[in-house]
Amino acid sequence: MLELLIIALVLAVDATVYSFSYGLVLRCCRLRNSLWLALTVGAFQAGMPLLGYLGGESVRDSVAQWQSGIVAAVFCGLGAYVIYGAWKGDEAEGDCCSKDCNPLGLIALLLVGVATAIDALAVGVAMALGDIGGANLSMPQLFANVSAIGLVTFICSLAAFHSARLLHHLPTRWLETTAGLLLVGLGIESLL
User: Is the pLDDT of residue 8 over 80?
Assistant: First the structure.
């Protein structure tokens, strides 16, 4: 269980940083957005190891060659979008709860879910090979493992999103720029 907890915490890092970044940016509808974000990244963190376990080596080999590029493109694109949004208009805060300006729409959530959890495929493959959790996991053990990974990510994401509130006394434009730079940094880190 300790090994699984450590793996879950390591896998949750990207989602946690992403959630913190959006916690800096979003000023309204925080509860709804934080829950949707945490549910999405938690579900993807649980689903990817399951997919890796069931698909084994073939899934890992198919995704491994594109993993860094996909993650880098998503994070750099989202980071650039956040920075652009911070500097394109005035400093006034609008109603981010309207459907048109909610930065956490379905497509953004799905992209973030994939980008933050794509490395979890390798964990699923390692589980299938018996390197994590022991050889020949039963289905209840497998579901307990991936559920624990998803739950840890959910909790870390929610905590990071809401802890960013402590910095909301700073100017919005600079918070959004910092959040965008964090996302671009995650993209660059995935390439390195």
Answer: yes
C-beta of residue 91 within 8 angstroms of C-beta of residue 170: no
Q: Round to whole Å and give the CA distance between 43 and 56.
A: 19
Query: So what's the pLDDT on residue 55?
Result: 80
Provide the residue type at 147 as one letter.
S
Q: What is the pTM of this model?
A: 0.73
Neighbours of 123 (CB within 10 A): 26
The model's pLDDT over 16-60, given as tens digits with 9 standing for 90+, comes to 888 888 888 777 788 888 999 999 999 999 999 888 888 865 665
Residue type for 113, please? Answer: G
Q: What is the 3-state secondary structure (H, E, C) of the chain?
A: CHHHHHHHHHHCHHHHHHHHHHHHHCCCCHHHHHHHHHHHHHHHHHHHHHHHHHHHHHHHHHHHCCHHHHHHHHHHHHHHHHHHHHHHCCCCCCCCCCCCCCCCCHHHHHHHHHHHHCCHHHHHHHHHCCCCCCCCCCHHHHHHHHHHHHHHHHHHHHHHHHHHHHHCCCCHHHHHHHHHHHHHHHHHHHHC
Taking the C-alpha atoms of residue 54 and residue 129, their distance in angstroms, rounded to an integer, is: 11
By the 8 A CB rule, do 161 and 22 touch?
yes
Which residue type, as a one-letter code, is found at position 182? L
